[in-house]
Amino acid sequence: METLKEEAINVISKMPDSASIDDIMYRLYVVDMVRKGREAVQGGDTVSIEDLKREIESW
User: What is the spatial distance between Cα 17 and Cα 19, in angstroms, rounded to a whole number?
Assistant: First the structure.
């Protein structure tokens, strides 16, 4: 598995040269959220579909 730094460098290097700092920051944000989501799933920190439906319906 890549380190966070390696992953960031890899993501940025694949972006076009015309990418703005906002584009880069957004892409890194998305990568971070995906990484955190994967870690949560691996750690068993999930919500069942039924619980999610109940939560949405209570809004």
Answer: 6
Give the DSSP per-residue string, 1-59: ---HHHHHHHHHHTS-TT--HHHHHHHHHHHHHHHHHHHHHHTT----HHHHHHHHHT-
On whether the pTM is more than 0.85, the answer is no
At 13-56, the pLDDT tens digits run 999 999 999 999 999 999 999 999 999 999 999 999 999 999 99
Q: How far apart are CA 26 and CA 13, in angstroms?
A: 14
Question: Which pair of structure tokens corresponds to residue 56?
Answer: 């949405």
CA distance 9 to 2: 10
Tokens for 37?
A: 């989501």
